[in-house]
Prior knowledge:
Blueprint: E1 11-13, E2 16-18, E3 22-24, H1 38-50, E4 55-61, H2 79-84, H3 86-93, E5 98-103, E6 116-117, E7 131-132, H4 135-154, E8 159-164, H5 169-174, H6 189-192, H7 194-207, E9 212-220, H8 229-242, E10 246-251, H9 271-278, E11 285-287, H10 294-302, E12 308-311, H11 313-317, H12 321-326, H13 344-348, E13 379-383, H14 387-398, E14 402-406, H15 416-419, H16 428-441, E15 445-447, H17 454-459, E16 464-467, E17 471-473, E18 486-488, H18 489-493, E19 501-505, H19 509-519, H20 526-533, E20 556-560, H21 576-585, E21 589-591, E22 594-600, E23 603-608, E24 611-616, E25 619-622, E26 626-628, H22 631-636, E27 642-644, H23 656-669
Parallel strand pairs: 3-4, 3-12, 4-5, 5-8, 6-7, 8-9, 9-10, 10-11, 11-12, 13-14, 13-16, 14-15, 16-27, 18-25, 19-20, 19-25, 20-21
Antiparallel strand pairs: 1-2, 17-26, 22-23, 23-24
The site of NADP nicotinamide-adenine-dinucleotide phosphate has 22 residues, from helix 19.
Amino acid sequence: MTSYPNLLSPLDVGSIRLRNRVVMGSMHTGLEDRLRDIDKLAAYFSERARGGVGLIVTGGYAPNRRGWLAPFAARFADRRTALRHREVTDAVHDTDTRIVLQLLHAGRYGYHPLNVSASKLKAPISPFTPRALSTRGVERQIADFVESAKLAKLAGYDGVEVMGSEGYLINQFLAPHTNRRTDAWGGDAKSRMRLPIEIVRRIREATGDDFLIVYRMSMLDLVPDGQTEAELIELAQRIDTAGADIISTGIGWHESRVPTIVTSVPSSAFTWATARIRAAVGVPVVASNRINTPEAAEAVLAEDRADLVSMARPFLADPDFVAKAQRGQPERINTCIACNQACLDHAFANKPVTCLVNPRAGRETNPVYLPTPAPRRRRYAVVGAGPAGLAAATTLGERGHDVELFEASDVIGGQFNMAKRIPGKAEFAHTLRYFEHRLNATGVTVHLNTTVTASRLVDGAYDGVVVATGVTPRTPDIPAIDDPKVLSYIDVLNGAHVGGRVAIIGAGGIGFDVAEFLTHSGGDTLDDWQSTWGVTTDPDARGGVTTIAPVDTAREVFLLQRKTTRVGAGLGKTSGWVHRATLKRRGVVMIPGVEYQRVGEAGLHISVDGEARLIEVDTIVVCAGQEPRRDLYEALQGKVSVHLVGGADVAAELDAKRAIDQATAVAVAL
Ligand code: FAD
Ligand code: NAP
Ligand code: SF4
């Protein structure tokens, strides 16, 4: 008897049986772009197929050069490419998993001068103004979609997913926001819909009945002048009639100013939009976005909101997601915490995609991250149970070593115990739950409440010691910084009293998190979130967006930094804008170029551009970065074999991505 009867039940779609209702959604990993990486791509998908997922959707492949995401990015337009992809499809078909190739034409999102669109309107996220396609040009794009689909069949794919959402070319034809044409491909809604309908109809004609066609549809455009509910329902019905087997959910355009996948977006936040399309069509419909646990996925199906559930990043975090759910061990799933730090932030920086909580993702053939059994069982001590120590201890244990983990406090997790208190970051607790169970499974002996000393470690005669002692907060050299109104971020996150007017010294990741913590006024429901970002369920509202409601903030906050650059410029590419917009809306005053003069009775004395200013505040919170905590490491030098990882190694610009990655690689090498 399974706890996930809906999620794990098979589904027949046309002539194809999917072994369960779990879809691994499309993600660009960087491995798609070069044919020489095909073995890596095959290993990456094969690991996920062996983990039991029902259907895999590849990253997006352009049908032609004009549809490239960037120069020389993934394209599926010739026989040689198709034949090389047999390595991928054969590897996946060694299991019962099915795989479809995503066809994505970037349109005006193409980051190159050849890009094209419905109309000559530059996208806010590309510097290149597109050329408006001629009527013949439109026909050529359709023909190229069809040709790519035929090649996908030759490559052994079970079908294709036609990318019709997220603001790419097809979406650009669908919405008046970007389609100003007056020919047969523009004007009223019927004409704007012609492009996807023709693509699906002609792919069906060319590939026959035993080939899956998934259509990824924008359920909510989240841009002004997007589609209305009535238009979306008509589109879904016509796509169904044109020959699609499955309709998959896409939410929001890349240029939208509404976050759709960062940590602060509530779980299953958009399934209401999927449900209304599902009610109008006969084909199975897939829900997606911010569904990252088998419980949440099961609930979506049990409540009849969708027929399948797509999860993308959760499969970077844990390829065995489905297998663990099937075995009744959901507590062992390494849950995606929606941080975007190693996946989307990498993709946008043209770096290979991996995962903060699973550094092996995307590097399945790289021995640095492969925890092979140790040739000889050795004894190791790991000091510090933050993310770095946890990754090191469990990797060593998994390899068969005898491991003792020492932690000074009464819980594992280090700074993640503070991170999870930040509004919108509660899911960081999943990582601690995962490690708790992995420590058990790998036989690591954990000593909590134990501040271990160098002499104890030397006396222990370990074969090696991994020092993961983390950081200590930096206290800036500002006159009267020891004033009682000055608190560290640790005091604040541990519940110290904070006044109504606050200055924050330091605007890095922690400064921003503390500002969110101090200005959060409590509303955590889906309705609160929708009104914060101007999302509406009103069927007549174009794009599903409306005006944003004013916010009540709990405090008046000043966020300060010495650099003269824009405050928050160093935050993550795909999440930083959400943090900046949130604080702006809550009236947080951000001041760059600050020189700190002194702490005084009335507040914080600073100067900006040589001009003296007093920020009148009740509380000053220091978030001025950290120093590595290395005293233990230094005391062990020359006495035992010692390895330094995580914040204790590099505190400047340290993040958990680097800490877990480094600790895993060190533990694999020992
Ligand atoms: P730590 O987490 O600092 O752990 C070190 C551990 O060692 C501690 O538990 C300590 O008690 C223990 N220890 C120290 N000395 C001894 C000793 N002698 N004996 C026994 N135990 C000892 N990073 C991100 O990447 N993304 C984020 O969104 C993010 N948000 C954050 C939000 C907040 C509010 C904070 C505070 C941090 C955030 N971070 C984030 C940073 C992230 O938490 C750190 O990068 C990460 O925790 C570093 O891991 P670590 O294991 O090296 O050190
Ligand atoms: P940080 O990002 O290095 O920021 C430290 C801040 O303090 C900077 O704004 C810096 O700016 C200021 N500062 C440094 N030295 C100072 C001094 N002597 N006096 C006054 N101000 C000083 O560090 P953090 O905010 O503490 O974060 C720690 C790590 O956790 C970071 O590496 C971060 O990546 C990670 N983290 C990430 C997130 C995330 O959302 N991705 C969230 C939280 C934390 P100026 O020098 O210009 O003043
Ligand atoms: Fe999820 Fe963060 Fe890993 Fe991306 S990097 S898959 S968001 S945990």
